[in-house]
Amino acid sequence: MGQYKKLWLLLIAVLTITFSILGYFGVEVYRKAPPFPEAYVSSDGQTVISRDDILAGQSAWQSTGGMELGSIMGHGAYQAPDWTADWLHRELLAWLDISAQNQHGKPFAELDAGQQAALKTTMVEEYRNGSRMGADGKVVLSDTRIKAIKAVAPYYITLYGADPSMEKARDHFAMKNNTLPDETRRQRLTDFFFWTAWASATNRPDYHATYTNNWPHEPLINNVPTAENVMWSVASIVFLLTGVGLLVWGWSFLRRHDPDPQLPESDPISKVHLTPSQRALGKYVFLTVALFVVQIFLGGLTAHYTLEGQHFYGIPLSDWFPYALVRTWHLQSAIFWIATGFLTAGLFLAPVVNGGKDPKFQALGVNALFVALFIVVGGSYGGNFLALTHAMPAHLNFWFGHQGYEYLDLGRFWQILLMVGLLLWLFLMLRCTVEAFRSGGDKNLLAIFVASMVGVGVFYAPGLFYGEHDSLTVMEYWRWWVVHLWVEGFFEVFATVALAFIFYNLGLVSRTSATVASLVAASLFMVGGVPGTFHHLYFSGTSTPIMAVGASFSALEVVPLILLGKEAHEHWSYQHATPWMKRLRWPLMCFVAVAFWNMLGAGVFGFLINPPISLFYLQGLNTTAVHAHASLFGVYGFLALGFVLLVARYLRPDYEFNERLMSSGFWLLNLGLAGMIAASLLPIGVIQIHAAITDGLWMARSEAFMQQESLVLLRWIRTLPDLVFIAGGCCIAWQATWMVFSRNRASAA
C-alpha cells in the first residue's frame, strides 16, 4: 500500500461497511416482503383466489413482457397504466357502487355527501385493516369485495384478448391484439394484479401503513405519504448538503498538488506494437456501434408506438413486433452495447498492463468471447420474440423467453451464458496482470484497476439470485443489484480507473495523481452507491428502515458529481496539452459529455426522483424516463462510445477522425438527447406530477389522461429530436466502422 495506505484503508472500510448494510437490510427485505397468502376466501371459507392462482398469474404476466407493458408497483413502461394502481382504483369504485346499491338502492355518485363519507370510512377500514392475513395464511374477503373483484376482472380479461370492443384501448396502451391468447391465463393474470393491489392497500401487521408504504397515492383509502416518508425526505436533503460541504472542505484542504508530468513528445501507447488479441478487437468495436444503431432505431420505434400503438405510420407491425418486444430489445440492446464497449476497453488495456505482450492463447480467448456474446445477443432476442408471440410453450418462458423484469428481460438460460461470458472476460483480464504484479515498482494503480474489473466481471451474478415465483420485492432487491450497483456502481468505478490508467500511460498525469484520484473516486462512489441501492425499493414492499437507509445514502450519490465540471475541463484540456493529443480529440469530447450528463442526468434529474416524498408521487411517471435517458446514455453510453473510438484510433493509427462527421455526430447526439428530454419527456412528466398529486397515480397513467391532445402533441414533437439523435448515432457508428474495416489508408469520407 505504501504512501496510499490511508486511502486503501478508507476504501476497504467503505466497502466493508456499505456491503454489510446492504446485506443486513437485505435480510429485512426477505422478512418483510408482502406474503403470498395461501388463499383469499369468502366469509364461509370458500376459496376465491389461491396462492397457486397468483403464481400462475405472475408467470402469465411475465409472458406478456411484464414490465415492458405498463408497470407493476411503479416499475416498468409508461404508456399503458400501472396495473397495480389501475386495478386498485377500479376495485375501490366498484366496491363503492356495490355498497351504495345494497344500502341505498342507487349508484354511489347519486348519494349525498354524508352517505358517501360513511361508505368511504367503511371501505377504508375494510381495505386497510379488515383484509390482513390470518395465522392460517388465509385472507377473508367480504362479499362486497368479492363482488368488486368479479366486476373488475372482465375488463382486463377482455383487454388482454382480441375483443373488438377494446381495440381502441389496446391501441392507446400500445398493446397488440391477443396479448395473452389463453383466457384461463388471462384470468390468472387478474389474480396477480389483485394481489399487487391487495399489498398496496393492506396495512402491515401492527403497523399504520401498507406493505408498500402507502404507495400508490390513492385518496379513496387514504394512501398518502407517511410521517416517516416526510422525515427521511428532509433528512436526505440535510445529508446531501452536509456531504457537499464536507467534499468542498476536503477538496480545499486535503487535495494534493502534484507537479505536472513532463509530457512525452509522441504518443507512448502508439509505440506499443499491437498484439494479436488487440488486433482482434475490431469486430468488438463494430458490434458495439452496430448494437448502438439497432438500439436507437428501436428507441424511435418504441417512442412512435406511444402514438400509434399497433402501427408504424399505418404499417401494422404490432402482430409480430409489438411495443413490449420492441421496448425489450431497446433496453437489452443498451445493456449489451454499453457492456461490450467497456469490455472492449478492458481487453485493449490488458496487454498494455502486461508490458505489450499477450499471454498464450489470449487472442483465442478474445475471439471465443466474441462468439459467446454474439450467441447471447441473438439467442436472447430470439427467445424474447418467441415468448411474446406465444410460439414458445409457457413453461419454457422464464428460462428461454422473457423474464418480464426491466433490464433483465432475457431468459434465465441466456442470462447464465452472459454471466459465463463476463467471467471469461475477467479471466482474460486477470491473466494479463499476473506478470505485471511480479515486476517491481508501485502497483497501487494496477491493484485498483484489477479490483474495478473484478466488480464488473462478478456483480452481474445477483441477477441470478431470484426465481420465477419469488416475491416482486425479493426480485427487485436483486434486480437493482444489477441495474444500480453493477451498472451505476462498478461500471462507474471501472470507467474512472480505466481513464486514469489511460491518461497515466499517455503521460498526461502522474502515477500518483492517477492512483489517488482512482482511490478517492472509488470511495466516494461506493459510500453512497452501495446502500443507496435501496432508494429503488421505497415502495416495492419494503419497510421503513429500507426507506431510511435508501434516502440517507442515496443522497450522498450526488455529492461526487459536484466536482464533475473540473473533470470535464481536464478532459477537454488534454487535447491541447500536446500536438499528438489532437488525434484523440473525439474520445476526449465523449468523456467531457459524460461529465456533463452525469451532473445533469444522474445528479439533477436523479435527485428529482430520489427523496421518498418526491418518488411517492413520481414513481412510474415520465420523470423516471428523463433520468434514465440522461444518465444511461448520457453517462454510460458516451463512455462506451469514447472507449471504442479510442480503441479504433489505436487499431488504425494511420487514420484520422473525419472532423465533419465526428463533429456532426457528437453534437447531434447531445442536441437530440437534450431535445427529447426538454421538449417531450420532462413536460409530460411535469403534467403527470400534478395529476398524481391531485387525483392519484391511476389518473396520471390513465387512458383518458394520456390521450389528451396536449400530451399527444408533446409525444409527436419528440419525433424531431429522436431523428436528430438517430442521425448523430449513425454518424458516430459510420466513423467507427470505417476506421475498423476500410482498407484504404485515408481519413473517413
From TrEMBL:
Keywords: Membrane, Transmembrane, Transmembrane helix. The chain crosses the membrane at residues 7-27, 230-254, 284-307, 334-354, 366-392, 412-433, 445-466, 478-504, 516-534, 546-565, 586-609, 629-648, 668-693, 723-741. It comes from the Bacteria. The keyword Membrane applies. SUPFAM superfamilies: Cytochrome c oxidase subunit I-like (SSF81442). InterPro entries: Cyt_c_oxase-like_su1_sf, Cyt_C_Oxase_1, NorB_cytochrome_c-like. Residues 37-217 form the Nitric oxide reductase subunit B cytochrome c-like domain. This is Nitric-oxide reductase large subunit.
